[in-house]
Design a protein that fits this description.
Elements: H1 9-26, E1 42-45, E2 51-52, H2 53-58, H3 62-66, H4 85-95, E3 101-109, E4 113-123, E5 137-148, E6 154-161, H5 163-170
Parallel strand pairs: 1-6
Antiparallel strand pairs: 1-2, 3-4, 4-5, 5-6
């Protein structure tokens, strides 16, 4: 994992993106956000029409908005339309009990239009949607464009990645009876957050 020099553009972008991600996954009150302006914020995935923060919440928050798909229902191994904030959070924190780390690989431009390449990664040490853990590294690579205002608050986000890269790694394990899935231990402070 790259350690960026203190104060560098890369370190600033990595800190902004990690803060933004943490807030979107763990904060529910608009007044609590520090990295974005909730009233004028938009999110877009793979060229789709941008949605507001309120619309993102209606989709079920973090994972569901990031895993939107136009696949027919019968081909969806993970269906964001059927998941809640709680069920999606539980599915991914169980599959990745040690977390799903974010790494900024390259920053192509700085504020006000930040363009960067990223990698999310973690070890599948818990079950996922009826599939046994493999212990293998699961990675997701992509690009993102963040627009920030004059105070460097995020006003729009566009992500570009192949969700199959993530889901494919989570479906490698043998099929298991879903009633026997155990929730993997996680951080004691975050265990009951969803």
């Amino acid at each position: 994992m790259e350690i960026w020099p203190p104060g560098s553009l890369e370190e600033r972008v990595q800190n902004l993106v990690k803060t933004w991600e943490m807030e979107l996954f763990h904060k529910t009150s608009d007044g609590d956000y520090k990295s974005l302006g909730p009233n004028n914020y938009t999110f877009s995935l793979n060229g789709r029409k941008g949605i507001s923060l309120a619309e993102k919440r209606k989709l079920g928050g973090g994972y569901n908005s990031l895993l939107q798909t136009s696949l027919p229902n019968e081909f969806r191994c993970y269906n964001p339309a059927e998941e809640t904030v709680d069920s999606s959070h539980r599915a991914f924190t169980t599959a990745f009990p040690r977390g799903f780390a974010l790494e900024i690989l390259h920053v192509y431009s700085g504020p006000p239009e930040i363009v960067y390449k990223f990698r999310h990664w973690g070890y599948m040490e818990g079950p996922f949607k009826g599939h046994a853990p493999t212990g293998e590294l699961v990675e997701l690579f992509g690009m993102a464009v963040f627009q920030v205002d004059e105070s460097e608050k995020v006003v729009s986000v566009e992500f570009f990645f192949d969700r199959g890269e993530l889901l494919g790694g989570l479906l490698k394990g043998a099929s298991i009876d879903s009633s026997s899935e155990e929730v993997a231990p996680t951080c004691p402070y975050l265990r009951n957050t969803g």
